[in-house]
Design a protein that fits this description.
- The structure holds 2 protein chains of 2 kinds.
- Chain A is an all-alpha fold.
- Helix content of chain A is 68%, strand content 0%.
- In chain A, α3 packs across α8.
- Chain B is an all-alpha fold.
- Helices cover 68% and strands 0% of the residues of chain B.
- Chain B has 7 helices and no strands.
- In chain B, α1 crosses α7 and α2 crosses α6.
- Chain B is globular, with a radius of gyration of 14 Å.
- The two termini of chain B are 21 Å apart.
- The relative contact order of chain B is 0.19.
- Classes of the chains: A mainly alpha, B mainly alpha.
- At the A-B interface, α3, α4, α8 and α9 of A face α2, α6 and α7 of B.
């Protein structure tokens, strides 16, 4: 029909971020210590949800909370994960493509259940709440829950 | 899933710090829940959901009060929560997914107010605790 020429198919919907959400994500990100907060985040995942240790059999001693919190491989990997999320935070309008290669990696090579991304996201939010206290207002918290959800969705894209 | 002696101690000790702030922290946990997970608001169309509202304070105190009851009866949750279990199964019928969202919101509230106490071990203990409570509250759903 002639109307199709005037109205081409719409592009895939982008995530809409309000100015406040972007500000909340960027201002908190500035305060993140990828090494320390990454270590704490991953440690909390492995401690609170011990079945997640299934992916880390090469990491050595994960036998108790102290071992996990002091494990150098956990520290290194936590830093890597948080740095990747930082990449997504710098590209809020492009999270899907920013995380696309990681989605492929986790699906096809690492064979990680995407449910685990949610667990890590929850622990990251708790780490931020501890770090920022009252400054982690419900509004700022909400922006981060959205960021975490969008990042999880992007990482899950390649699975089906 | 069972709570270890250490888990129980962590639940009781942190609840001790919460118990005199049930209204404030309960309201905060609920407001965080509604701010982050809009789907949970569908159960509260009759509430004033603005921050610090009387409805949120009253209901927040009720929720944390029930958790306090549970914390005092960790070896007998089924019996301690039996009435609440009936209420959720036959009356409220809140979709089970929401318990997880509220659990997380409560934990974020605890982490924000008690950063030193909410260690990874404490997080694990509270996650298990609220999960156990949620299990009892949904146990009669079908």
């Amino acid at each position: 029909r002639s109307s199709d020429l005037k109205h081409p198919a719409p592009k895939a919907k982008m995530v809409h971020w309000t100015a406040e959400e972007k500000a909340a994500i960027h201002s908190v990100w500035k305060q993140v210590d990828v090494e320390k907060d990454g270590q704490e985040t991953l440690s909390r995942v492995l401690i609170t949800y011990p079945w997640t240790q299934r992916y880390f059999s090469s990491f050595g001693d994960l036998s108790n909370a102290a071992a996990i919190c002091n494990n150098p491989k956990v520290k290194a990997h936590g830093k890597k994960v948080l740095a990747a999320l930082g990449g997504a935070a710098q590209h809020l309008d492009n999270i899907k493509s920013t995380l696309a290669h990681l989605s492929e990696l986790h699906a096809d090579t690492l064979h990680v259940d995407p449910e685990n991304f949610k667990l890590l996201g929850q622990c990251l939010v708790i780490v931020l709440a501890r770090k920022l206290g009252a400054a982690f207002t419900p509004e700022v918290h909400g922006a981060w829950e959205k960021f975490v959800a969008v990042s999880c969705a992007a990482l899950s894209k390649h699975y089906n | 899933m069972t709570l270890t002696t250490a888990d129980k101690a962590l639940v009781v000790s942190i609840f001790g710090k919460v118990s005199s702030h049930k209204e404030a922290y309960g309201a905060e946990a609920l407001f965080r829940l509604f701010s982050s997970f809009g789907q949970s608001k569908t159960y509260f169309s009759h509430f004033d959901l603005s921050q610090g509202s009387a409805d949120l304070k009253r209901h927040g105190a009720k929720v944390l009060g029930a958790l306090g009851e549970a914390a005092s009866h960790l070896d007998n949750l089924d019996q301690a929560l039996s009435k609440l279990s009936d209420l959720h199964a036959y009356n409220l019928r809140v979709d089970p997914a929401n318990f997880q969202l509220l659990s997380h919101s409560i934990q974020v509230t605890l982490a924000a107010h008690f950063p030193a106490d909410f260690t990874p071990e404490a997080q694990s203990a509270w996650d298990k605790f609220i999960s156990a409570v949620s299990g009892v509250l949904t146990s009669k759903y079908r």
